[in-house]
Prior knowledge:
This protein is an alpha/beta fold. The protein has one domain: TIM Barrel (Alpha-Beta Barrel), CATH 3.20.20. The chain contains 8 helices and 6 strands. The chain has helices at 22-31, 41-44, 51-60, 80-89, 106-112, 131-140, 157-165, 171-186; strands spanning 12-13, 36-39, 65-68, 94-97, 119-121, 146-147. Strands 1-2-3-4-5-6 form a 6-stranded parallel sheet. Helix 5 (106-112) links the parallel strand 4 and strand 5. The longest helix is centred in the last third of the chain and has 16 residues, at 171-186. The chain is globular and about 45 Å long. The relative contact order is 0.11.
Amino acid sequence: xxxxxxxxxxxxxxxxxxxxxxxxxxxxxxxxxxxxxxxxxxxxxxxxxxxxxxxxxxxxxxxxxxxxxxxxxxxxxxxxxxxxxxxxxxxxxxxxxxxxxxxxxxxxxxxxxxxxxxxxxxxxxxxxxxxxxxxxxxxxxxxxxxxxxxxxxxxxxxxxxxxxxxxxxxxxxxxxxxxxxxxxxxxxxx
Length: 190
């Protein structure tokens, strides 16, 4: 399937670190027009610092974006400290941290990841975080590295949009979040 044929959707795939031919799978994904890969370490019980995952990062560096579900106080699979280690070990890897880089661990995200070479996605976050903390994270990070809709919005999309619209951000900042930053990151055109 060629995902480039439908301009309404930008495909991301996924892999499992124990699959025998991830190199072949990455080649198939690239050939099909997929723009990135998502991992949900908590659901998959995946150690993102394992040798198998490091092999995947090596194959993806400079080729595909990688999005992680990040943070959840109940687990240690995707804590911001682990993402920070990946950023250090793979400086050419394009990383997107879902949930502003730390679902339910937003203070850690702000202290550990803000200002680093990582994109943050807003999906499924603004219902659970105060607007004040959200804006604090956004302003401490880089507004050119904030995305909307690259992760699955668990709740109603209209509500997700309204939550961003309510934030005390400039129209330019909101434009970047809603589509400008994704256009640049994923090489999209209007």
